[in-house]
Specification:
Blueprint (H helix, E strand, L loop, with lengths): L7 E7 L12 E6 L5 H9 L16 E6 L3 E5 L13 H12 L8 E7 L6 H12 L4 E6 L6 H14 L5 E3 L8 H9 L1
């Protein structure tokens, strides 16, 4: 593991265009379904508790920007597929994600698509995968929550996921045991 994270700072939450996204600092975007463990993964990655976690899906309703080592942004996107009725609607969250990920004004150094290893690629995950592929994004897939599977389930699901994503990098990951952390750091900071 070459990269050491020395500092993590919350910059701001966005619900639309902001000049900070065009300031030239490299961006690593994290996207996944609601309740896939995205905030926990960001916290493990940054050795902090900067990204708010919740057992309630749909908690993140804006694009949260974190500055890491004063040299790159971690961009925490809202989860797709769920929205609380009291916050932004599901349609608005979809527009927010699309306007950031697929707008030519913004260029991500890497996109990390997080899926639930237990469930595998859902229809919504496949849609996001295809969009990332169609827009020629540099992305990897993190199969999170592997600690909740038996060895047999793990091997079956990982084979199934790898077949579906045709040669893209898939990193098995556990936020509880920190399995896959070194691989993830190598992939996104190389």
């Amino acid at each position: 593991m070459n990269m050491k994270i020395k500092s993590t700072k919350f910059i701001k939450g966005l619900v639309g265009y902001d000049t900070i996204l065009a300031d030239g600092i490299p961006q690593i975007a994290f996207i996944g379904r609601s309740n896939v463990g995205k905030s926990s993964l960001i916290n493990i990655l940054t050795s902090s508790s900067i990204s708010r976690t919740s057992s309630f899906p749909g908690r993140t309703q804006e694009i949260n920007i974190f500055l890491i080592n004063n040299s790159f942004y971690v961009v925490d996107l809202p989860g797709y597929g769920f929205a609380r009725t009291s916050g932004l609607g599901r349609e608005k969250i979809g527009e927010l994600i699309d306007s950031y990920l697929f707008n030519s004004l913004y260029g991500q150094k890497k996109v990390v698509l997080i899926i639930d290893a237990n469930i595998g690629m859902t229809e919504k995950d496949l849609l996001m995968f295809r969009e990332l592929e169609n827009h020629q994004k540099d992305f990897i897939i993190v199969a999170n929550k592997i600690d909740k599977m038996t060895q047999s389930e793990y091997h079956n699901k990982m084979n199934e996921i790898k077949k579906m994503v045709k040669g893209y990098t898939v990193i098995p990951f556990s936020t509880k045991k920190k399995d896959g952390l070194e691989d993830l750091i190598d992939q996104i900071f190389s």
